[in-house]
Design brief:
29% helix; transcription; 9 strands; transcription regulation; DNA-binding; globular; Chorismate lyase; 236 residues; single chain; Mannosyl-D-glycerate transport/metabolism system repressor MngR; seven-stranded antiparallel β-sheet; two-stranded antiparallel ribbon; alpha+beta
């Protein structure tokens, strides 16, 4: 049986997807939601915190919690080198520690990002990327089992994009949301930094050339060590 807080997450995502809670609207107050779901404030806040982390909601202190508007930026495949190639191209040493490698049933949140049904199987992978021995990026990735039945821990210690290309698949584009984030206790420990250290959070949804979504990733970068360059092209 799924935890109560995850059931609340699924229900809120369904209400957002159906338009019952429209983009930009404020959710009912915490006390009202506690009554609706018959849960404690602690349980409700756990659900809301997860939805904020996954970029479905945002909070304004002293006002309330709102449904986030879709602000995905789309970048062409010609700019998608991937972290592995970017680091290697700079002559630096990249190593990876895989913290989690498991197969799970997709919940509504992950399914909505990967265009899967709620119970389709997905890989859940967490890894830390090190540059010249220093932890610089933490990544949490979900990938459909149906696309990558032979995916292994060894593959995820290297480049997942190279693995995907080796299967004859063509990566078309990546939709990305870039946000500021302060390191919590877990991220601070993984990145060998202090709590509230400024990070760059990048939520990425990758698509193949036929429109199939092959990954949903949440990445955390140290702002002091990593930057992004964005290019705009005039097609006139």
């Amino acid at each position: 049986m799924k935890s109560v807080y995850l059931q609340i997450v699924d229900d809120l995502i369904e209400k957002i997807s159906s338009g019952e809670y429209e983009e930009g609207c404020m959710l009912p107050s915490e006390s009202t939601l506690c009554e609706i779901y018959n849960v404690s404030r602690m349980t409700l806040r756990k659900s809301l915190a997860l939805l904020v982390e996954q970029d479905f909601l945002f909070r304004i202190k002293g006002t309330g919690t709102f449904v986030k508007k879709n602000k995905l930026a789309i970048h062409g495949a010609s700019e998608l080198l991937g972290f592995y190639k970017e680091v290697k191209s700079q002559g630096k040493d990249l190593t990876t520690e895989v913290l989690t490698f498991e197969i799970l049933e997709s919940d509504m949140m992950v399914g909505s990002k990967l265009n899967l049904d709620a119970h389709d199987m997905v890989y859940h992978i967490e890894r830390v990327r090190f540059i010249n021995g220093e932890p610089e990026m933490v990544e949490r990735t979900y990938m459909p089992l149906s696309l990558f039945s032979d995916l292994t821990v060894d593959v995820m210690r290297e480049s997942k994009y190279e693995y995907i290309k080796s299967k004859g698949l063509h990566i078309s584009r990546s939709k990305q949301i870039v946000l500021p984030e302060l390191a919590g206790k877990k991220l601070a420990k993984l990145l060998s930094t202090s709590e509230n250290y400024p990070l760059l959070k990048v939520i990425s949804i990758g698509e193949l050339d036929d429109g199939t979504v092959f990954e949903y990733s949440i990445n955390y970068f140290k702002l002091s060590e990593y930057s992004f360059e964005f290019y705009s092209y005039n097609n006139d």
